[in-house]
Automatic annotation (TrEMBL):
Transmembrane segments: none annotated. This is Calcineurin-like phosphoesterase domain-containing protein. Residues 32-249 form the Calcineurin-like phosphoesterase domain. Keywords: Signal. GO terms for molecular function: 2',3'-cyclic-nucleotide 2'-phosphodiesterase activity; ADP-ribose diphosphatase activity; CDP-glycerol diphosphatase activity; manganese ion binding. Residues 1-21 form the signal peptide. It holds the Pfam family Metallophos. It comes from Parabacteroides gordonii MS-1 = DSM 23371. Coiled coil: none annotated.
């Protein structure tokens, strides 16, 4: 039995190594982008494993590395600050030192201190609270999994009625992601997602879905309506991968045929960094992790 386990581990390692060489040897990636999650900077004292002030130094090092590797753009998966709008400017000012554009989605912590969500989106130069953009024959869908949440200023709007429905559904299914740090996407955003995927499938594009809250594997950190999102994307073969933040320790699993990566948060630990560079090839996606961020090699079917 021990020999069998050894052979299985060896096979996985060799397969991963071979796949990395196959994707990267003697060929340049079609797309290269930086990946950052949960910077969570705050001008406040350390609490536990969260060294809030240290995030600026880590981000500076991250930016230097991403510029050196000539990424075409960087994706921020949310929670650039921990608790105050006043802390956003120092982070945004640092991100301006990147040689390429930054595409943001928001995290639950980003909403603290804001009474108008539009002010937050403007601070981050977001075109809308959820949106997509194209690079080559790839469509990048930036979901906002904090659209429906107790902290995202939905009181008195049509979105308010959708929150208790999500929470009741979680309770009836005896799951534990009905936490006050989680949010979900509205019925309108869900329909928008479906429309985006239908258009991408029709036009022969490949899709990468990005979000703050993980969609899978199911934990207490996933989006409030994670299952509805999964039920939507699983019907489309154009969806090649889902990448999320929020759960600082990271995770990985396949939902049916879709690889779902939860990338590690920069905020954790005193000095060890966490960020990644994603290379997309014709037949594979390679996430190279730095510091605490894990690396993944994913064949594209």
């Amino acid at each position: 039995m021990k020999n069998l386990r050894y052979l299985i581990v060896l096979f996985v390692l060799l397969t991963s190594f071979s796949a990395t060489r196959m994707f990267s040897q003697d060929t340049s990636p079609l797309i290269r982008f930086g990946l950052i999650a949960d910077i969570q900077y705050g001008d406040c004292d350390t609490h536990g494993d969260r060294y809030y002030r240290n995030s600026l130094e880590k981000l500076t090092s991250c930016i230097d590395s991403l510029n050196e590797q000539k990424v075409q753009f960087t994706i921020n998966l949310g929670d650039i600050v921990d608790r105050s709008p006043a802390d956003i400017d120092p982070v945004v000012d640092l991100l301006k030192k990147l040689d390429a554009p930054v595409f943001h989605t928001t995290g639950n912590h980003d909403y603290k201190g804001f009474t108008n969500n539009g002010d937050l989106f403007n601070k981050l130069d977001m075109p809308a609270e959820y949106y997509s953009f194209k690079k080559g024959d790839w469509l990048f869908i930036m979901l906002n999994t904090n659209e429906i949440a107790s902290y995202s200023n939905i009181k008195g709007t049509w979105k308010e009625a959708e929150l208790p429905v999500m929470l009741d559904r979680i309770k009836s299914s005896k799951r534990n992601n009905d936490q006050d740090w989680n949010g979900g996407i509205s019925s309108k955003q869900l329909q928008w997602l479906k429309d985006q995927l239908q258009e991408a499938q029709k036009n022969g594009m490949k899709v990468l879905v990005l979000s703050h809250n993980p969609i899978y594997p199911a934990t207490e950190f996933t989006a409030l309506n994670d299952q509805e999102i999964l039920d939507t994307i699983v019907d489309f073969s154009c969806v090649k991968c889902v990448i999320s933040g929020h759960h600082h320790t990271g995770a990985f699993a396949y939902y049916k045929n879709i690889p779902c990566i939860t990338t590690e948060g920069m905020i954790e630990t005193e000095s060890k960094n966490a960020f990644g560079v994603v290379d997309i090839y014709e037949n594979g996606l390679v996430l190279t992790g730095y510091g605490r961020t894990k690396s993944y090699t994913i064949p594209l079917k």
